[in-house]
What does this fold into?
Amino acid sequence: MDVEVALYSGRPNPVFRLRGAEREEASRRLGALVAVPDRSAPPGGLGYQGFRLRPASSDGSSDAGAWEVGDAGDEPTLAGSSIVEYAVGGGLVVARGADGGVRVSLDPGRELERWLAERSTRALTEQEIRLVEGSLASEEDPGSDFPR
It folds into this structure.
């Protein structure tokens, strides 16, 4: 599973890969989310926006379509369309379907976002870590324990 840290506009964002147990844990966390009815996806902006998760194929490319999520290993769908990306940030998780459909879920306490942030340090510079850390600390958790 490829994870993009959404930091920049106009230049490439840092990307890292979740494999093995980390990938399984991310899938478990995504599968446990509960959709929020009548909630639209938040608009984008500048600066840190969170994380974008996409499946990775067995040959290492990112063009693998949807992936399996959840305890039963069911492929997630969104009104009959496979989910091809999750955007995690600001206490929300937005699932995007291959057909453009969207499902929004809550990320209570930003737990999934914080879990991803802990793993992102291997792909980030010190300055980028401070940007992510600052965003997580400024919203809901003034005592962030984001690793340095």
Observations:
- The chain is about 25% helix and 25% strand.
- The beta strands are 2-6, 15-17, 50-54, 77-78, 81-89, 92-97, 102-106.
